[in-house]
Amino acid sequence: MMNLFILQLLNGVQLGVLLFLIAAGLTLVFGIMDVINLAHGVLYMVGAYLIATFAAVTGSFWWGLLLMLPAAVAVGLVIEFLVMRRLYARSHLDQVLATFGLVIMANEAVKMIWGTSPLSVPMPDILSGSVPLMGPLQYPVYRIAVIVAGLAVALGLFVMVNYTRVGMLLRAGATNRSTVSALGVDINRLFAIVFTLGAVLACLAGALVAPVLSVDTGMGESVLILTFVVVVIGGIGSIKGAFLGALLVAVVDTLGGVFGPILLREVLDPSAASQVGRMLAPMLVYILMAVILFAKPAGLFGSRA
Length: 305
Hints:
Elements: H1 2-33, H2 40-58, H3 61-82, H4 92-114, E1 130-134, E2 137-140, H5 141-163, H6 165-175, H7 177-182, H8 187-209, H9 219-234, H10 239-264, H11 270-280, H12 284-295
Antiparallel strand pairs: 1-2
GO cellular component, one term: plasma membrane
Transmembrane segments: 12-31, 38-57, 63-84, 96-114, 141-161, 190-213, 219-236, 243-264, 276-295
Family: Belongs to the binding-protein-dependent transport system permease family. LivHM subfamily.
């Protein structure tokens, strides 16, 4: 049981760092630009398809990852210029409708370009295999590398947000956007930087998960709901909140799905415990969100309006 707990805890941490990469961009976009972007999950999907394409063309995962990053920058800049820039002054309802339409268009475009069959990305040889943890317990090297990469990105974002001029503008924009604009900062340029940064992080998450999961259309929708939960729990506009919220949501979701049915067997018969456990497990994340919002309505690190 202890080995199972450690294994699922590591799986939760891995899912957490991936959720953080997506949620960090989403919380900055909403906190600074005041834009509700339902198409953020599309960027996660696009990142997976880009690395699948570049890895297939070059025959190397590392070259595919390297080429994916500038392509993600280009995708972010194009979407910001063509779509998002026209939504800044619009209502949240207009933003929801426009970005939902973008989701539909992006999914259809992906089907036209890559087809409907799932794609696979080969795992790099250097990161294949497993490492022993304790006793007979082993854990895949690639998943450990994903955790390390996510933590490194989180550290880089923390340094950028707290110790650089761009980070100062981001924090100021999240606090009082109109004052930043009045001080002479090019707000459109700042918004372009914020959205492109979020796009790159989401694409990076998709690229990192591609060797583990199959790459297919619609893969961004399933993760988008959890990402919004992470943003709400952590507090809108807070990178620190997004990191802690992502880990909380992922660990609760992972451990709840595995240990919920096991614990219910103490009071129910095995078949009923399995069925009830599968029903209750998806609810745990939302129960966690409700509890946190009851105690802190602005989220863990959000600021009250």
